[in-house]
Write a structure and sequence with these properties.
The chain is α/β, with parallel strands linked by helices. 42% of the residues lie in helices and 14% in strands. The chain folds into four domains: 178 residues, NAD(P)-binding Rossmann-like Domain (Rossmann fold); 86 residues, N-(1-d-carboxylethyl)-l-norvaline Dehydrogenase, domain 2 (Orthogonal Bundle), CATH 1.10.1040; 112 residues, Transcription Regulator spoIIAA, CATH 3.30.750; 74 residues, N-(1-d-carboxylethyl)-l-norvaline Dehydrogenase, domain 2 (Orthogonal Bundle), CATH 1.10.1040.50. Strand 1, helix 1 and strand 2 form a beta-alpha-beta unit. Helix 16 packs across helix 18.
Length: 504
C-alpha cells in the first residue's frame, strides 16, 4: 500500500486540521479541506496563505513552492465532493460519538481502499473503529501542535487495524518529513502517558509543601528540561492538564499511578488556569511572570582536615574535579574511595550524599551520624556553573553542617536550593518515574524503547529519552529510588515495572 500520491481529505479546519493540510500540500498532495462550520475551510486556507507568505519572507520556503502548495488546497462544502480521496485525516472535536459518526458517513462515500486516519490524542482507536464495515483501515495519525513544526507523529494501531495500513501511514509520515513511531491504542498512547509523572511528582511535592513552584521548576530546568512543570502546566492550562490526567486515570481503571492532584483540582475550581486566565502557579500581566528561585548564598566552606570523594561513577568524577579546584586555597587534595557504596563527599565526619531515593533522615540512621545532607541527581554532566540543585538536611544535623552543606554545594559549582526532606528530592524521583512509566509502556507493547525515546524528545522536547536516561544511570539505581518512594508512601503509585525488575 502506497499513499505517497494519494489525494487527501482533511476533515476539521481548526489549528490542527489546517496544519495537517499545509504539511500534506507542501509534500505534493492534492488536499481537500472540509469543516461543518460554513466558511471555516475557506477561512483556514486564507490563514494558510498568510502563513506560507511568512515562510517565503523568512527565506524558509521558495515563492513558487508556496504558490504551488496553496493551489493544492481546495476548501469543499460537502463531504461527497471528496469521494475520490485515498486518505482521510480527521481532526474534529475530541468526542468518541462524533468521530464514530463521521467515519461511518465516510465509509459510504469513499472507495474501499481509502485509508481512514484519526488525529485523536486520547480516544481509543479501537473504540472509534467499532461499528465500521472495514475497521481494519482505521488508524491513528496523531500529530503534535504546531503540526508544520513538530516532527513527531504517533501511528496508533487499534485491535483491528491492519498492519499494512499502519505501515503505510508510517512511511507516509517519513515522506512528509516527520518522525513516525508505532504505538498501540492504550490510554494516552506514548507521549501523554509517559509524560504524566513530569507533572504528577511536582504536584505531589507541592501538596507536601516541600518547596515553592519556582524552586521545583528551577531544579528540573537545570536538569535540561526546557520548561519546568509548573510553568508548563500554566502554559497548557490547568483545566486541560487536569482533564487529561483524569481521562488517563479513569481509562486505566483508577490505577493509583495516575491519580489526579488535589492541588490542581483546587486551582481549576478557583479559575486559576494559568496564562489564559492571568494566574496559575504564577501571575501573568505587566511586570509579572515566573519569580526567580532564590538559592542560598553561603560563604566558602570552612577549613577541613580531610575530604574524601565517594563513588565509582561519572558524578563522583565530576565531584572530584570540582572538589580539587575548591580545595586549592586550603592546600588540600581530596582522597577518592571508588569502592564506596554511596556517591558524594565526606568532609571530616559529615556527609554530602547523592540521593538514592532515601531521605536524609534515613541516610543519617543508616550511616550512624547526624551530619548528613542529601543532594539531587545532576542529569547534565559536567554540570553548568551555577546550576540549580536541590538538597535536604537530616533533621538532627548540627548548626555547623546546616551552613556548611550548602557552602560545599556552592563550592562544587551548584546553586543549592533547600527542600523539605522528601524521598528522591525533585529530579531523581521525577526521572525515575518517567523511566518506570516508559518501561511499563514497553512491557505492555505500546511502543519500543527507541520509539519511547523518540516520542518524548520530539513530542514534548525532553532533553533525553527515558531509556537514554536509564543507560546513563543504571537499572539498579532507578529501582532503588522507586523502592524508596514505595516504602515511604506505601501505596501502588511507586511500584516498579516488571520490565525493570527483569533487568536488575
Amino acid at each position: 500500500m502506497d499513499l505517497r500520491n494519494a489525494p487527501v481529505l482533511v476533515v476539521g479546519a481548526g489549528i490542527m486540521g489546517a496544519g495537517i493540510a499545509q504539511v500534506a500540500a507542501q509534500a505534493g498532495h492534492g488536499v481537500q479541506l472540509f469543516d461543518t462550520r460554513t466558511g471555516a475551510a475557506a477561512d483556514a486556507k486564507g490563514r494558510l496563505a498568510a502563513t506560507l507568505e511568512g515562510l517565503v519572507a523568512k527565506g524558509r520556503l521558495g515563492a513558487d513552492a508556496a504558490t504551488a502548495a496553496l493551489a493544492r488546497i481546495s476548501p469543499i462544502d460537502a463531504l461527497d465532493e471528496a469521494a475520490g480521496a485515498g486518505l482521510v485525516i480527521e481532526a474534529i472535536v475530541e468526542q468518541l460519538e462524533a468521530k464514530r459518526a463521521l467515519f461511518r458517513q465516510l465509509e459510504g462515500l469513499v472507495a474501499p481502499g481509502c485509508v481512514l486516519a484519526t488525529n485523536t490524542s486520547s480516544i481509543s482507536v479501537t473504540a472509534i473503529a467499532n461499528g465500521l464495515a472495514q475497521p481494519g483501515r482505521l488508524v491513528g495519525m496523531h500529530f503534535f501542535n504546531p503540526v508544520p513544526l513538530m516532527k513527531l507523529v504517533e501511528v496508533v494501531s487499534g485491535l483491528q487495524t491492519e498492519p499494512a495500513v499502519a505501515e503505510a501511514i508510517f512511511e507516509l509520515g517519513r515522506t512528509w518529513g516527520k518522525t513516525p513511531v508505532h504505538a498501540k491504542s492504550t490510554p494516552g498512547f506514548i507521549v501523554n502517558r509517559i509524560a504524566r509523572p513530569y507533572y504528577a511528582e511536582t504536584l505531589a511535592l507541592l501538596l507536601e509543601q516541600a518547596a515553592e513552584p519556582q524552586v521545583l521548576d528551577a531544579c528540573l530546568k537545570a536538569a535540561g528540561f526546557r520548561m519546568g512543570p509548573c510553568e508548563l502546566m500554566d502554559l497548557i492550562g490547568h483545566d486541560t492538564n487536569f482533564a487529561v490526567t483524569q481521562s488517563v486515570y479513569e481509562a486505566n481503571f483508577f490505577d493509583k499511578r495516575y491519580v489526579p492532584s488535589l492541588v490542581q483540582r483546587e486551582m481549576v475550581a478557583g479559575g486559576l488556569l494559568g496564562r489564559k486566565s492571568g494566574r496559575g502557579f504564577y501571575r501573568y500581566g505587566e511586570g509579572d511572570g515566573m519569580p526567580a528561585a532564590t538559592a542560598a548564598a553561603p560563604g566558602a566552606p570552612a577549613r577541613a582536615h580531610e575530604v574524601t570523594v565517594h563513588g565509582p561513577d561519572g558524578i563522583a568524577d565530576m565531584l572530584e574535579a570540582a572538589a580539587t579546584k575548591a580545595l586549592v586555597e586550603q592546600g588540600l587534595r581530596p582522597a577518592r574511595d571508588r569502592e564506596s557504596t554511596w556517591t558524594g563527599l565526606r568532609v571530616d565526619g559529615a556527609r554530602l550524599v547523592l540521593s538514592d531515593g532515601r531521605t536524609a533522615q534515613q541516610l543519617a540512621a543508616a550511616m550512624d551520624t547526624t551530619d548528613v545532607a542529601v543532594f539531587d541527581r545532576p542529569l547534565v554532566l559536567p554540570a553548568p556553573p551555577g546550576a540549580a540543585l536541590a538538597f535536604a538536611l537530616a533533621p538532627h544535623a548540627g548548626e555547623g553542617w546546616r551552613t556548611q552543606a550548602p557552602a560545599w554545594l556552592a563550592a562544587l559549582g551548584f546553586a543549592p536550593l533547600a527542600l523539605a526532606d522528601t524521598p528522591g528530592l525533585v529530579v531523581a524521583r521525577t526521572v525515575a518515574m518517567l523511566v518506570n512509566e516508559a518501561a511499563d509502556a514497553v512491557l505492555q507493547g505500546v511502543c519500543t524503547p527507541e520509539g519511547a525515546d523518540a516520542a518524548m524528545k520530539l513530542g514534548v522536547n525532553y532533553p533525553a529519552g527515558p531509556f537514554e536516561w536509564l543507560a546513563r544511570w543504571s537499572v539498579r539505581g532507578v529501582i532503588g529510588v522507586l523502592d524508596a518512594l514505595d516504602a515511604h508512601y506505601r501505596g501502588e503509585r511507586y511500584r516498579t515495572s516488571p520490565w525493570l525488575r527483569r533487568r536488575a
